[in-house]
């Protein structure tokens, strides 16, 4: 009897995301792997599509306009059990609590946006749906180049617009104490940072994605805790926006787009403070060496190079200021950025930190994500040093350096290119 070939029905993936660059790249790769796609920009539209039937799997951005991502997962699970409809959630790695809530609500798989490419996402979907799709051929990969170039041009234009708008919001934060106005600007900046992070991730710009994710998380925390909008936090935010502008310029050339594995040293005699700093760095997926006394740190700094150093100002024996003066004479760490951690934000402490060779400082108490953002900003700054002209390293933003000094309380003018 002659065998009749019946083609396998294509499985349909619902992409719940408002970012057109992210959606287009996901669609491109899913279609090439034999899937069909549906798109919903928010939770209400997503539920309407699901209720029509035919969806095999959902990719959900946890941060959506007019939508609580965790509540959306709960609504999906109220109608579709996990075994019938897998839900892959893309979350911000800095927002651990949000990810845990999504998991409890019924997410099938949690992925960090900044650590998973569209290709990795599509491979995961193929595995979860029983190896339905075949890997793309080399010719198909080559065919994607024009699409990526078009999306890159769109991304660069949108990124510059987003950064210009974030600059306006930053200046508002620096200049006003009006809570309602600050809240509006924080929410607007948050959505801009979120879109920037998502597009940078799928296009492979790892440094932009990592820093933008940190900025987004910082803005979310400041929205929920207005009293935490300190001069130190505003300064950190300004530095990060300025660095995102430089990274966006770098995105137009062939250059490394990942931070690699930087070495970070934390020196603080207070165990709780030291662990708090280390916790913030681990949140940014960074490895750290920590020491409780300046003498041990001095010996280690003579022997090994570090990419970034955090120093407590006041320590028994040799203070952080004295240690910084000494390490500026050590070949291994002569130019390593030093960030002071202090409970004092007065001008005298700022001046002494600069005169001792420090580059920046963060004021206690600080948000964990604030310190993480400051760390990633400085590491990105180091990676840009060969490309950034000397004249532009002391930009008008409050990027505390030995030459530029510290201006925590001043509204900063950003050089957005």
Tell me what you see in this structure.
With 417 residues, the chain is an alpha/beta fold. Helix content is 51%, strand content 12%. It contains 14 helices and 12 strands. The protein has a 5-stranded parallel sheet with strand order 2-1-3-6-7, sandwiched between helices. Strands 9-8-10-11-12 form a 5-stranded parallel sheet, with helices on both faces. α9 packs parallel to α14 (368-384) and α10 crosses α14. The longest helix has 38 residues, at 138-175. The termini are far apart.
Can you tell me the residue ranges where pLDDT is under 50 for at least 5 consecutive residues?
Answer: 1-7, 132-143, 387-417
Quaternary structure type: single chain
Shape: elongated
Q: What structural class is derived from the secondary structure elements?
A: alpha/beta
Rg from alpha-carbon coordinates: 23 Å
Helix-strand pattern: EHEHEEEHEHEHHHHHEHEHEHEHEH
Strand arrangement, major sheet = 2-1-3-6-7
Query: Could you describe the largest sheet, including whether it forms a barrel?
Result: 5 strands, parallel
* Through-space gap between termini: 70 Å
Portion in helices: 40-55%
Tally the helices: what do you get?
14
Range of strand content: 5-15%
Got a strand count?
12
> On the 0-100 scale, what is the average pLDDT?
83
């Amino acid at each position: 009897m002659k065998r009749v070939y019946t083609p396998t029905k294509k499985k349909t993936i619902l992409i719940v995301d408002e970012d057109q660059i992210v959606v287009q790249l996901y669609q491109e790769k899913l279609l090439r792997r034999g899937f069909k796609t549906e798109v919903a920009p928010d939770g209400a539209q997503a539920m309407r599509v699901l209720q029509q039937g035919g969806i095999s799997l959902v990719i959900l951005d946890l941060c959506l306009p007019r939508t609580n991502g965790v509540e959306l997962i709960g609504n999906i699970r109220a109608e579709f059990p996990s075994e019938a409809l897998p839900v892959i959630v893309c979350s911000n790695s800095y927002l651990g609590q949000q990810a845990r809530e999504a998991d409890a609500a019924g997410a099938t798989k949690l992925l960090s946006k900044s650590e998973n490419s569209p290709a990795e996402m599509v491979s995961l979907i193929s595995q979860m749906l029983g190896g339905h799709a075949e890997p793309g051929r080399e010719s198909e990969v080559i065919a994607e180049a024009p699409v990526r170039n078009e999306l890159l041009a769109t991304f660069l234009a949108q990124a510059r617009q987003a950064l210009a708008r974030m600059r306006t919001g930053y200046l508002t934060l620096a200049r006003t104490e009006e809570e309602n106005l600050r809240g509006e600007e924080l929410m607007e900046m948050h959505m801009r940072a979120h879109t920037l992070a998502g597009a940078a991730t799928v296009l492979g710009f790892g440094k932009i994605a990592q820093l933008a994710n940190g900025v987004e998380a910082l803005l979310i925390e400041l929205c929920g805790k207005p009293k935490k909008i300190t001069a130190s936090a505003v300064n950190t935010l300004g530095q990060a926006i300025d660095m995102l502008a430089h990274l966006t310029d770098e995105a137009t050339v062939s250059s490394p787009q990942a931070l690699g594995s930087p070495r970070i040293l934390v020196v603080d005699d207070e165990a709780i403070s030291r662990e708090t700093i280390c916790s913030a760095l681990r949140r940014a997926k960074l490895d750290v060496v920590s020491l409780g006394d300046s003498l041990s740190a001095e010996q280690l700094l003579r022997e090994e190079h570090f990419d970034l150093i955090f120093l407590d100002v006041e320590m028994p024996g040799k203070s952080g200021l004295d240690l910084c003066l000494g390490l500026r004479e050590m070949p291994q760490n002569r130019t390593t950025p030093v960030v002071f951690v202090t409970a004092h934000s007065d001008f005298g402490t700022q001046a002494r930190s600069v005169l001792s060779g420090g580059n920046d400082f963060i004021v206690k108490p600080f948000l964990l994500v604030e310190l993480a953002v400051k760390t990633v900003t400085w590491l990105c700054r180091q990676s840009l040093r060969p490309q950034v002209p000397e004249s532009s390293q002391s930009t008008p933003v409050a990027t505390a350096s030995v030459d530029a000094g510290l201006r925590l309380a001043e509204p900063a003018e950003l050089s957005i290119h």
